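tool=predict chain=A
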Amino acid sequence: MVGRRRRLPGTGVGRRLAVGLVLVVLAALLIVPVGRGIDVVRVAPGGDGPPGRVYVPVAASPGSSPGVVVAHGFAGSAALMHTWSLALAHAGFVVVAPDLPGHGTDMTAPPTDGVDGGSLAAAVLAAADRLRAIPAVDPDRIGLLGHSMGSGAVLDAAIGEPERFAAAVAVSPTDADVDPTTPRDLLLLAGANESRFVANATSLLERAGGTRGSPGDGDARALVVIPVVEHVSILFSRTAHDTSIAWLAAALDHVPTDEAPVGPLAGWALLAVGILVLWQALVVQAATPAAAPTLRSAPWVALPVGGVAATASLVIIVRSVDVAAITGLLVAGEVGLWFLMAGAVWLRFGVRPASPEVRDLGWAALATLTLVGLGATTTLAWAPWWLSGVRVAAAVVLSLLLLPYSVAAASLLHGRRGRRAVVAWLATSVAVLVTLGAAAVVVPGIGFLVLVLPLLPLVLGAVVAVGVGVDRPWASGVAGAVFVGWLLAMLFPLA
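tool=predict ok
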């Protein structure tokens, strides 16, 4: 009888190490070519006009290139539009992508102006002024593109000053006072899986005079529904990029010069997974597990029950407390409070970690540095990440609010590997999605969460990947709370 092949000591570590290194190399091969031939300049706050990013094709000669202002949506930034901006720049457009008031790196907006339509349109006009001042730009060939909230900003700007803009592209559009003559050459894009925004686009098209003409006519109108995608993934859709490029090229009398390489998002995703695999290969092997947590009467039921209780409590709290004033951010404070209450119930009735030890400090620092470093890689593809001003204080407050949930989640993960860890991640993700999703529906002012909640399992998955194998709930819990708190403070706009 042939016996089972024995696994040599260290072979699992070696395989993980090899896989991690291969993923990092593949990520570099995807990311490095993306910006080749494009000068990307980051505009810091404090100058004339909003901060953000400027994309200029290296081959552009003076006065030869059309320009496009690219405006992000609520809780977005110039960084979130990076893939779309690069696609336009590779096609020969000069692009200015601003951080709209209260978003991204913009810290100068008055508190009440963060999502005010007038201030947003003014920022788009200021970005257009910056675009026209770039030597490579032909000032008579300027177009606008905006996503979600940014679509309203660019439409308001194009309607208010139609002589300045030859075309407008509204992606996942909100409402605007369009008519059959303004804005000029209007293209509406929406994802097939965002029915609300398809309805918005259909309504806009009807009020704009219906489908007609060709871009370049001045009064052309069209609606294109992009297959498969929804409100976030449309930003990274090659079909959406190509459709907008074709429309703007025709409207601005331009022949596209090139096609962008595979977007930076794919390279970033491989890099993120590679980092997590390397963490498992190199660091987790040295971990000394803490004592096992105490499972109470309802370890699996306590989280959804806590989520329901948190949702009900939040409905009452927001009626008497200005939550945004506590953190200085919109939506993020309510999310932090929800996790505080849900996590407290989970710890009380579901799972209790052993007392923290001195060595938890070192592991907490190491795990936190890893997750913060992982977050920093988002600057390559979709997020600004680094915090300043009120966002730093907000991140501290949010991390403290998230700590009970994060410690409870890490405690439930203790001792689980492989499929058991995946099951724990899936179960907690579903419980959070359902109950926090309910909060997004019934709690005033946080309905935007419905659009981004599908991304939450990926965030929780990164925290799980760092915690698996360490088996030190306090260390992993602190790291997870800091990571998610930082992410919330980065994403949501000033209140």
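The longest strand covers residues 137-147. The two ends are 71 Å apart (CA to CA).
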